[in-house]
């Protein structure tokens, strides 16, 4: 498929996925359309040879698997891992603020967000609402206001003359978004959520909104840009780009091998949760696929995980922030991420396998090593590998402005990543 069509599909996926809850719902909808069968962890599972299934946890993490032909599972799993969450601003439990006759909501920073790009953006609000119906039942529903309803205005330079020399942004006092004028009677967020949930879910009879998990997000849609359409800009490329690539590769695979896609929440805050990579979700699914513990160890030792999470491309205005021999380029293909202090899980064998797969797929490949005098980020790769003993390679599409409200990738790199992941899923043999 031409990269323009792939990027249109990626843009649609990102637009439908303003929060991890919505991303998981988007993944599940596409899997259902492709014939994958939903499973519930609270039920017994009856898995058929060659079957295709998926399971979610917390509405924000998903594992999909295709069992392949007879004997495929015993030959080892081909796993692709990514994460559904991105840095953002989350609404606090009691967030209402009234200042200068304006109504604001207090927001907590989720993950390692870049603060400055959040100013002067057209923001909306989305997430999960938990409510009590008129019948006394507790239910949760996803909502998305979709339209711009909030903004964080910058302070004019006339009142902040030193701003271009660098001014620290205080997340407590500088980041609460403005939503409206103060009116009488006072505005009530829970009543606003009740009305919006009722509008989006007219089948419900809502008594009261009891709690919520809501995120502000930028309403500007993704775009392909540049004189020659070389670039793709969007919110949440880290890491919805990888979730989308893993999904497309799984759906496009030939179905002969045992393949598994893991998209978990909370990576941006350490993955230590019931539905994160440092929790038991993957292990619980694997134990049901392979109930015998000895056989499970044998299969996992024949398995490979590709941990897909975006990589830092060489920024032309900050080239000195990269090691001189390891500066990935946009549109230069997926990047193998290496760190000898185990911030990434790649080793010589798994990196060699990925280079081999790229060669087979006709895809360029690059490598990244952080400067020796700088700290290194991490991924779900080392976490998953250490918990399950699966050999892992950390890779990702090169991007600019990681953790900004709007990030930038090369327009050809999403297609490159899909091609090599599909080659991985279809490979007859691993190392």
TrEMBL record:
Membrane-spanning ranges: none
GO term, biological process aspect, one: proteolysis
Cofactor: Zn(2+)
UniProt entry keywords in alphabetical sequence: Aminopeptidase, Hydrolase, Metal-binding, Metalloprotease, Protease, Zinc
Stored Pfam families: Peptidase_M18
UniProt cross-references to InterPro entries, sorted A to Z: M18_aminopeptidase_2, Peptidase_M18, Peptidase_M18_dom2
Residues reported to bind Zn(2+): 83, 158, 403
One GO MF term: aminopeptidase activity
Enzyme Commission number(s) from the entry: 3.4.11.-
GO cellular component: cytoplasm
SUPFAM superfamilies to which the protein is assigned, alphabetical: Aminopeptidase/glucanase lid domain, Zn-dependent exopeptidases
NCBIfam families per the UniProt record, alphabetical: PRK02813.1
Sequence similarity: Belongs to the peptidase M18 family.
UniProt xrefs under PANTHER family: ASPARTYL AMINOPEPTIDASE
Protein name: Probable M18 family aminopeptidase 2
Species assigned in the record: Halopseudomonas salegens
Lineage: Bacteria, Pseudomonadati, Pseudomonadota, Gammaproteobacteria, Pseudomonadales
GN (gene name): apeB
């Amino acid at each position: 498929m031409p990269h323009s069509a792939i990027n249109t599909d990626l843009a649609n996926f990102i637009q439908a996925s303003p929060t991890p809850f919505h991303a998981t719902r988007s993944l599940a909808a596409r899997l259902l359309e492709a014939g994958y069968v939903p499973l519930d962890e609270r039920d017994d599972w009856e898995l058929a040879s060659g079957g295709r299934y998926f399971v979610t946890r917390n509405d924000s993490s998903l594992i999909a698997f295709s069992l392949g032909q007879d004997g495929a599972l015993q030959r080892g799993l081909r796993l692709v891992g990514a994460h559904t969450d991105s840095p953002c601003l989350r609404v606090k439990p009691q967030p209402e603020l009234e200042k200068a006759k304006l109504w604001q909501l207090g927001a907590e920073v989720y993950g390692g967000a870049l603060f400055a790009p959040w100013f002067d953006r057209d923001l909306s609000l989305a997430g999960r609402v938990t409510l009590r119906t008129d019948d006394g039942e507790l239910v949760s529903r996803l909502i998305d206001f979709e339209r711009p309803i909030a903004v964080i205005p910058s302070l004019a330079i006339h009142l902040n003359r030193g701003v271009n020399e660098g001014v620290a942004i205080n997340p407590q006092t500088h980041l609460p978004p403005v939503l409206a004028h103060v009116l009488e009677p006072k505005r009530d967020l829970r009543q606003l959520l009740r009305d919006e949930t009722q509008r989006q879910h007219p089948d419900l009879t809502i008594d009261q909104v009891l709690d919520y998990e809501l995120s502000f997000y930028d309403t500007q849609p993704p775009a392909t840009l540049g004189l020659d359409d070389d670039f793709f800009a969007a919110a949440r490329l880290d890491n919805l780009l990888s979730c989308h690539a893993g999904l497309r590769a799984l759906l496009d695979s030939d179905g002969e091998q045992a393949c598994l896609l893991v998209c978990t929440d909370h990576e941006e805050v350490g993955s230590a949760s019931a539905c994160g990579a440092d929790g038991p979700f993957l292990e619980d699914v694997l134990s049901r696929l392979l109930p015998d513990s000895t056989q499970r160890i044998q299969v996992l030792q024949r398995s490979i995980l590709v941990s897909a999470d975006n990589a830092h491309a060489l920024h032309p205005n900050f080239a000195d922030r990269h090691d001189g021999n390891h500066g990935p380029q946009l549109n230069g293909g997926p990047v193998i991420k290496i760190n000898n202090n185990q911030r990434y899980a790649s080793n010589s064998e798994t990196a060699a396998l990925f280079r081999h797969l790229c060669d087979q797929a006709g895809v360029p490949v690059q490598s990244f090593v952080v400067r020796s005098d700088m700290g290194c980020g991490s991924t779900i790769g080392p976490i998953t590998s250490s918990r399950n003993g699966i050999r892992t390679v950390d890779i990702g599409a090169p991007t600019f402005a990681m953790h900004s409200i709007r990030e930038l990738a090369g327009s050809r790199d999403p297609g490159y990543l899909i091609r090599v992941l599909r080659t991985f899923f279809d490979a007859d043999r691993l190392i």
